[in-house]
Amino acid sequence: MTRRLAWFVIALALGLGASAAAWGADDPVPAAMKLYEKRRYEQAARMLEGVKDIAPQGQLVLGMIYLRNADLHEVLARTAAAAELDYLDKLLKTSAEGHSRYARLYLAEALLARGNAREAARHFEQVRADPAIESRYRAIASIGLGSVLWTQRDAARARGLWSAAAGADGAAEIVLARAAAQAGARAVDVQSLRRVADGAGNARELSPRARRYLIEIYLAAGAPDKALAVAQAADLGTASYVEGFKAAKGTAKSISFYDLALLTDLAQLYRQLARRQLEQAAADARMKPSAEYYLAEALNALGSNDEALAFVQAFLARPQAPAQYRERARARQALIAHRQGRGAEAESAWTAMAETSSDPEVLADIVLGCADAQAQCAKVLARVAQVIEAGDARRYRRLNFALGSYHLRKKDYARAIAFMEAGRDKSNKNKIEANDPEMLAGLAEAYYRIKKFSEGLEIFFEMSHEFPVVRQIQEAVQGVYSMEQRSAGDVRIL
Amino acid sequence: MKLIASIAVLTLCLSAQAGPKSDGRPDGGVLNYSEYGRTATLDPITSNETISLRITELVFNGLVGIDEKQEIVPELAERWEASKDGRVYTFTLRRDVKWHPREGEEARPFTADDVVFTYNIMMHPKTITPLKVRYEFIEKIEKTGDYTVVCTLKRPILNALAKFSFKIIPRHGPTNSQFLTREDPFVRNPIGTGPYMLKTVTGDGEVVLLANPDYFKGRAHIDKFIAKPFADQNIMAQALMFNAVDMIVLVNPRNLPEVQGDKRFVLQPYNALSYSFFGYNVRNPLLADRRVREAIAVAVNRQEMLDSFFNGQGTVISGPFAPGSWAYNLDVKPLPFSPERARALLAEAGFKPGADGIMEKGGQRLALSLKVPIEKESEAVKRVVLAFQNYLKSVGAAIKVEFKEWQAWKEDVFLEHNFDIVFASWVFDDSADISSLFHSAEIGSWKNNFGGYSNPEVDGLIVESKLTLDHEKRRTINRKLHAILAEEQPYAFLWTLTNYSAYHRKLRRVQIHPYKFFSFADEWFIPASEQK
């Protein structure tokens, strides 16, 4: 797919009568594209980020890299939520001896990150009232509760809690927590946010929690480059907090906690960066068509549906656009329509497209649109089943992945696994070069849901080499697995 | 009258379980599956390898089973109660279970006597089994009626109920009623209560199993299972392609592309919790030195071997757990490939190069034997072994490779301890229990700590892990164990390979247990039109 994409970029440029995009000998763009093809998004991005006066094609490619990385982090956030909410809940239910005090705070924050404000509030209240918890974290719980109240439109109480939050220690972290909460609520102006963030950013050492707050503040302040710098200065696999326990004798246990919100923050960060790069690329006449295509996607994902629609329409207005990408843009257009409340129109468009197309990439985009919109799309699925049955399985990897994603969102985990496994390159089972990491992350979630924990852990073990942030998922799955497994303790020689 | 009627109804209901299943799926057909070797023993007590594990899963039952959702389900016990302190478990047994009949005999009923017998024979000091360490937490098992057993534990433990999935054998089975050895005819000709009965083991080593018509969960659908041993792994995929077998238990990674490309077959991943290793016999003074073991580990380029011989289809590991395990310490990285470090370590250990380039110390050459089971003699394994030889030669260690027939290899390793290094793999269930591999009490005949490794700190941690009732504490302990064993290198920990089984699409409703494989095989079926 990506090789085709490279040709698309050049072909479109040629089709518009512009001179061919010729790669210079030292041009990092081809090398970055190779890494992009291997799904090594972080490395690919790094290769281009440091380039001074990057050319428009470089901006386009960097935009595409950020876009894919954003999608991946969004899927990782969903997978992480499944495991981490379970894990934290189980920790809370552990018997009194050796009971974790901090699981509740992290559960509250995870619930808030996933939009479950009411449950989050309950836990924040309990953390605030627990004298055994360090005062800084009780203050952070107060700030979290303030965020909940803000979502419930109780701005006065929210502001009150934010202002009052203080701790005997960790003042800098509390300041950042407050600013991040206010940033999320859009309750304070951008300049104030920048001042707080720039002040904190000068600190020699930032805790993982402080870094996460900084990322959120910079994103809200319209400074994604600064947020990126914060993210890149850190080992994203580091635990946010390690709770140590005393042991009268023997081993003293420890439990590591992570910020679930970090994954959503990174998804948002990469989307904003993608937008910026693509907008810059679009300023160049040769890159404009391709940039429009991807801008539609980026803006759609950012929730700017009107702008997304404008770009997809602009792309569709170009007669030179390759047929496949035209169809895929139409599939995107339907998704935008769905997001704008025109669900019936969207399904109708998808159905009509599916009935006349046998291009697996187009069909995959349609199915992914249905998954994203959580639409029924029964006729689309029936048509796709016919196409798959009749054809060569090796052509339908991405289509199988799309079907798997659809069924995963519908919570039909057996079907999700069946389709994703059908699309998986089994000779390179967990390698991101051979299998889209978004698919692998979705597959890991499906396996998690049916309690085949080791399959998911294998996937993330491999993925962690390129994306260390998955460490939080690994820890949560390991934790749940250790509690859920019912094996007798057998081992055999093979 | 009412009471008699009730009992009659109850009896009818219970006995109605035997006979065909009521799921509407067809009976019939034969499933031929490939194994990469033969096994000498077919019982659940003396066997210690995966080939026999799969067969015992078809032939025997435990008091409880574990379903695909990780839930404990009734099996030979229809219900149970646990005391509040977690120390006493009372099992009420099914009354409708019969043992597979021997030729010319009536089938005998399964009773509490069989449960007590199994436990006692398993724990007898003269019984050869690696199971004792797993059940040391049980104080006693007694019958309080023909269909009631009471198990008293020495202490409450995590996950106690799952432990009672151990397979029950009949009191009238073994010749010796006190203890079980590999010489007892029962281990080659077992009878159980399971969905399949052993019919015969042919001269070629094929194990033929027939569906048990009186199985208490309903007769299994497929009439016959045949385990076919293959001396050469390389031809298993061809056997599948040419319909000589319907299923391969473990596909050679090199054959995955070919099988995946063929629409007739399904590839199903399982068994992620296994890893390969070179295991050391630390009774050899040369290998008792940790620096020598570490030198060997860093002299070998594991990633290169994985990439070259297994098409990169696996993951290099750093310690005693597979990466898919909940116990894997994610902070411990594999030792890096470094021949320079290997030489430095050997020098530190007092070795100097001899005239032929082989290291010497105190007049003794660093010459070691490597024993490999011949059934594992796939192309890939041969190359691994050769590569290992070459890597070690380059740092001054001479390795003599010996391929041995499987049973002879097992005797050398587990019984005689007649080896310096072995190349082998372990497969684990989900419990991540490495106690039998590395605790010093597990050194001895037919026990899993065949290398003789002993470390009091490791012993202490293993015991602590078994005693704790705190899951997170157990995780912390296992992370520590991983770190220590990665440092100590009782094995050169190599890799976990990509694991898939492959089977013909005619097999339906195939759920594979990640460790035991055939746990749900009584539900598999073949449509009537596709039965041979």
Describe the model.
The complex is a heterodimer of chains A (494) and B (532). By secondary structure, chain A is mainly alpha-helical. Chain A contains 24 helices and 3 strands. Chain A has a two-stranded antiparallel ribbon with strand order 1-2. Chain A is globular. Chain A starts with a helix and ends with a strand. Chain B has helices spanning 2-15, 50-59, 112-123, 160-163, 236-241, 256-260, 285-288, 290-299, 302-309, 339-348, 379-394, 406-416, 435-438, 456-467, 471-488, and strands at 30-35, 64-66, 72-74, 77-82, 88-93, 138-145, 148-153, 196-201, 207-211, 224-229, 247-248, 265-269, 274-280, 314-316, 352-353, 359-361, 364-365, 367-373, 398-404, 421-428, 491-497, 500-504. In chain B, helix 8 packs antiparallel against helix 10 and helix 14 runs antiparallel to helix 15. Chains A and B meet through helix 23, helix 24 and strand 3 of A and helix 4, helix 6, strand 12, strand 20 and helix 13 of B.
Features:
heterodimer; A: 494 residues; mainly alpha; two-stranded antiparallel sheet; globular; B: alpha+beta; seven-stranded mixed β-sheet; six-stranded mixed β-sheet; 21% strand
Short description:
The complex is a heterodimer of chains A (494) and B (532). By secondary structure, chain A is mostly helical. Chain A has 24 helices and three strands.
